[in-house]
Each structure stands twice: as structure tokens, then as C-alpha cells.
């Protein structure tokens, strides 16, 4: 079991693209450079590999158009513009395609907050490449607190379901993750004061270092998220917008599909860097 790296946090910009959410995912990488660099704000990095923010980070404006966005470390769907009391999704743990001696990383999670705030309440699974071999595990995190790895076995093909729920009128959260293939589950009760509950996400992610260098994205093939819900309804009903991961040159590192039935989508790996 590979223990998660503790790397100081670097906030990364989330740039609103000029492509509508129904357009092909790869098109965001061909947007004009000005569109890619005119940041609407910075996305606080809520990765399980990192520790805490390196200073105050600007937050994404609530009023931006719900079109395709780009990020150097996130892919998937996020919703903002209201208070969120719950987020949930199902997925199948992808197989890590690892080669060479370099280290690569990828994580898959559901969470509240992070798209436009400085905390994230999240739980998910991971596949990393270390020494040419894939390492699989699951975790939860009440960012910016330290992440917690679960010791249970995780294998490619495992069927996961996960949810994060905010209990009304307080600072308490319930994080649930279940591996129905390996027959284990965890229900975690945590408190986090000051969380805004201002966004909900279902995300595939790559970690970054303290100098804003995004680490190579592990080749996870194609990731299938299903039953993506926010506040108990299909995430599309919360006007969710698509996020596509790109490198510094604007080349997409993956492809994110449109939502099917308002709650199903895929993330397909394309490049490590």
C-alpha cells in the first residue's frame, strides 16, 4: 500500500473556456490563448496528496457562464451558485496502465466545496504508478486537514459508490464510501467549521507540487462515473459545468464526455503531461 505523498499545496487556475458544455471535450484545448488565460479565479487544490493551501487564494466568481472550463488538475463536473447539502456518484475503479520508473498519480472523488472556496469535504479512490506498478487504495479528506487512507483492499474493476452529506444547521458532515466488489464500506462523521457548501463536484484529478507544477497523470484508461447527483437530483439540474484537464500549453490531458441522462459521464485519459 503506497502511502499518499504529503506535498505542499499550490492553488491552480480554473479558466473558463469558450466551448459550451455540449461541445466535444477536446475542443477546449483549441480555444484562443486569451480565452484560456483570462482566469475567472483560482481553483484551490483539494487533492488527497497535498496538505494545505499556500496562502490565500482567489475564489471563482459565482456569476460565470456554465460552459466548459479548463483546469490543470481537475476533470469532470462541478456545480456552483447555490448551497449544497449532498453530492454522490458511482464509479468503477479503473486499471492503471503503468510503465517505466517514473511516478504518476490519479484520484477519483466526490466532494462539497473547492471550486470556489478554501475547503473540501471529499472521499474517493486512487490509482498511482510507482516503479512501473499500479497502487490502488481509497481515502477521505476534510481539506485542509490531513487525508486519511483506508487500509481495505482495492482492485481494478471494483464498483464504488460514495457520498458527502452536510447536516443542516451545523458544521457536521457524513462521508460514505463503499466498495461493493470487495464488500467493505466506511461511514465517517466529521466537523469542519467555516465551510461554505458552495459547490459540488465529481472529479478525476492529478496532484501538484508547491511550485504549481502538476505531477504526471497516471494512465487510467477510461473512467466511468454514473448516478452523479447533487442535492439528491441529477447534477445537471444544478447547472453543472464540465471541466477539462489541460497542460500549460493548453493541450487536453483527457477528454470529458457530455452528461448522459443528466448524471452519467466518462473521463478518458490522453496524456500524462
Keywords:
single chain; 273 residues; mainly beta; 8-stranded antiparallel sheet; globular; disordered N terminus
- Point out poorly predicted stretches: 1-66
Strand order of the largest sheet: 2-1-3-16-4-13-6-7-8-9
First CA to last CA: what distance? Answer: 25 Å
Radius of gyration: 17 Å
State the domain count: 1
What sequence of helices (H) and strands (E) makes up the elements? EHEEEEEEEEEEEEEEEEE
**Helix amount, in percent?**
under 10%
Q: Hey, roughly how much beta strand do the residues contain?
A: 35-45%
Report a brief summary of the structure.
It is built from one helix and 18 strands. It has a ten-stranded mixed beta sheet. Strands 5, 10, 11, 12, 14, 15, 17 and 18 form an eight-stranded antiparallel beta sheet that branches.
Summarize the structure in words.
The radius of gyration is 17 Å and the shape is globular. With 273 residues, it is mostly beta strands. It has one domain: Jelly Rolls (Sandwich). It has a ten-stranded mixed β-sheet. Strands 5, 10, 11, 12, 14, 15, 17 and 18 form an eight-stranded antiparallel β-sheet that branches. It has one helix spanning 33-37, and strands spanning 12-16, 42-43, 69-71, 74-80, 86-92, 107-112, 120-130, 133-143, 148-150, 159-166, 172-179, 184-191, 199-205, 222-230, 233-234, 241-245, 254-256, 265-269. It is built from one helix and 18 strands.
Amino acid at each position: 500500500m503506497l502511502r499518499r505523498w504529503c506535498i505542499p499545496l499550490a492553488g491552480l487556475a480554473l479558466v473558463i473556456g469558450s466551448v459550451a458544455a455540449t461541445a466535444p471535450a477536446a475542443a477546449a484545448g483549441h480555444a484562443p490563448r486569451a480565452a484560456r488565460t483570462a482566469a475567472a479565479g483560482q481553483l484551490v487544490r483539494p487533492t488527497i496528496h497535498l496538505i494545505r493551501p499556500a496562502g490565500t487564494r482567489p475564489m471563482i466568481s459565482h456569476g460565470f457562464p456554465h460552459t466548459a472550463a479548463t483546469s490543470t488538475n481537475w476533470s469532470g463536473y462541478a456545480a456552483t451558485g447555490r448551497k449544497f447539502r449532498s453530492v454522490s456518484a458511482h464509479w468503477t475503479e479503473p486499471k492503471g496502465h503503468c510503465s517505466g520508473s517514473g511516478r504518476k498519480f490519479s484520484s477519483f472523488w466526490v466532494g462539497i466545496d473547492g471550486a470556489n472556496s478554501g475547503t473540501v469535504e471529499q472521499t474517493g479512490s486512487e490509482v498511482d504508478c510507482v516503479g512501473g506498478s499500479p497502487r490502488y487504495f481509497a481515502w477521505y479528506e476534510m481539506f485542509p486537514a490531513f487525508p486519511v487512507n483506508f487500509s481495505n483492499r482495492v482492485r481494478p474493476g471494483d464498483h464504488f459508490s460514495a457520498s458527502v452529506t452536510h447536516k443542516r444547521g451545523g458544521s457536521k458532515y457524513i462521508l460514505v464510501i463503499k466498495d461493493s466488489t470487495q464488500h467493505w464500506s466506511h461511514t465517517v462523521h466529521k466537523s469542519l467549521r467555516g465551510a461554505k457548501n458552495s459547490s459540488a463536484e465529481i472529479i478525476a484529478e492529478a496532484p501538484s507540487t508547491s511550485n504549481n507544477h502538476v505531477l504526471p497523470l497516471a494512465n487510467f484508461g477510461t473512467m466511468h462515473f454514473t448516478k452523479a447527483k447533487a442535492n439528491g437530483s441529477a447534477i445537471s439540474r444544478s447547472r453543472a459545468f464540465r471541466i477539462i484537464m489541460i497542460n500549460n500549453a493548453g493541450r487536453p490531458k483527457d477528454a470529458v464526455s457530455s452528461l448522459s441522462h443528466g448524471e452519467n459521464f466518462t473521463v478518458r485519459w490522453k496524456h500524462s503531461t
